Each structure stands twice: as structure tokens, then as C-alpha cells.
Amino acid sequence: KERVDVIVDCMKGIAELQGHQDVPDTDRSDEIGDMARATVVFQDTMQAVEQARLEQQRLITAFDQIAEQVIVYDTEDRMIFANAAYRRFNQPILKHLPTDFTLRQYLSIGCDIGAFPDVTEDSRAWIETQIAIENPEPFEVRRAPDRVNLTVQSRVPGVGRVITAKDIT
Fold first, then answer.
1. What's this model's pTM, rounded to 2 decimal places?
2. Which of 4, 40, 86, 151 is the most exposed place for a label (fewest CB within 10 A)?
């Protein structure tokens, strides 16, 4: 019963700790000391997770302020981030896609709904050409009904593909 009370007290202490505060009993060599040291590790880990979450939110907020469209795909070409400008411009395509779409799905739906007016009969070949682009040189992509995007696709080692587009109509 006493151990259970100590465990409950430790768990309450974890919930109450904010910032890095001294955790009592970390110098003990028994189970209580092990639990106290685990509390410190847990506390430090939770602080690191919260800090990473805040940094991620700051980056998302910053990218959402950019007028240029930005989308990031992972190494399997699955979307992991799209900024607000990208989401606005591509809403006609995005509304047909799941939240974890691939570049291939995006291009395929875009072709299906006529978002890419330069694609005529062989949409598969056009899609394969778009997916194969790894050169960070800008190129134009016409968008229906009458828009033109200056687009850059870059491969980033360990991340995947970053695509930026600017409406130059």
C-alpha cells in the first residue's frame, strides 16, 4: 500500500511539474529513486516535445505568410506540408483528395478535372514527366482557366521533394 501511495504521489508530481524543478529522491538507490529519476527524464522529454511543437507551429505560421505556394512531399512523394497559399490556389484539386495524398494522386486528379490545360490525351506520360523532374530550374505550368505558375521542384536529401510555385499570370 505504501508503494502504491508513493507511485500515486509521483504521478501527481509529474502532472504538477512545470519547468525543470528539482524532483525529490533522485539520489535514492531503490525503486523510489528509479521512479524519481524516470520522472526527471519524463519531464525533460515532455519539455523537449513541447518546445519542438512550438517551433513547428512557428514555422507553419511563417510559411503560411508567404505569398508563394510551398508544398513538401516526403521521400515516398506523400504530402507532409502545404502552406496556405498552396491550399488556396489548389483548392479545386485538393477537395477531391485525402489529407495524406501523393504527388501522383494530386497530378492525376488535376488532369481528371482539367486543371492542367496543356495535358491533352496522354495524361499518364505528362504525370510521369512531372514526377521525374528533379532539376531545381524554374518551369512554367499552365493552370485552368487562365493562370500560369512558375514552378520549382527540388529534391532535399532526408526530406523528400519541395515544390514552390508563383502565380506569374
1. 0.69
2. 4
Amino acid at 126: W
C-alpha–C-alpha distance, residues 1 and 8, integer Å: 11
Give the DSSP H or E segment for 94. helix 91-94
Please report where in the chains the cell 506540408 appears, as a residue: 81
> CA of 151: how far to CAs of 3, 13, 108, 143, 148, in Å?
63, 53, 18, 12, 9
- Residues 6+ away with beta carbon under 8 Å from 58: none
- Could you report the per-residue pLDDT of 104-115, keeping only the tens digit for each? 999 999 999 999
Q: CA separation (Å) from 43 to 21, 38, 86, 89, 91?
A: 9, 8, 38, 42, 41
The residue type found at 77 is D
Task: State the residue for C-alpha cell 501527481.
Answer: 12
User: How many angstroms separate the CA atoms of 105 and 74, rounded?
Assistant: 14
